[in-house]
Amino acid sequence: MKKYRIDQINEYMRHEIALFLSKTKNPKYLVTITLVEVSRDLNNANIYVSAIKLDKTKIDEREIIDFLNEYKEEIHKYLLDRLDFKRIPKLHFRLDNTAEHAMKIDKLIDNL
Length: 112
Fold this sequence. Notes:
- This protein is 49% helix and 23% strand.
- The protein is built from four helices and three strands.
């Protein structure tokens, strides 16, 4: 499959999953879908998320992944209804630590 087609699928899935999550009543987290990477065979999709706890306490990676996994079946059904695909990839949620990593690097640079 052409790269631009996979890029379109990635972006479309990112948009639809973000839309689904925005509709859920979630008093604990603010979740952002930062990236979706669908495999070339369309069997798997890694969904990278960034999350903030609304009570400002430190977020536990396992906690946010468990929270998202609770919705995995509902998201899959939602995508089946919304996307015109023959099959929907299996969803795998991953925490995107890019922002945290960038802050650590900034601190290191500031300390030089």
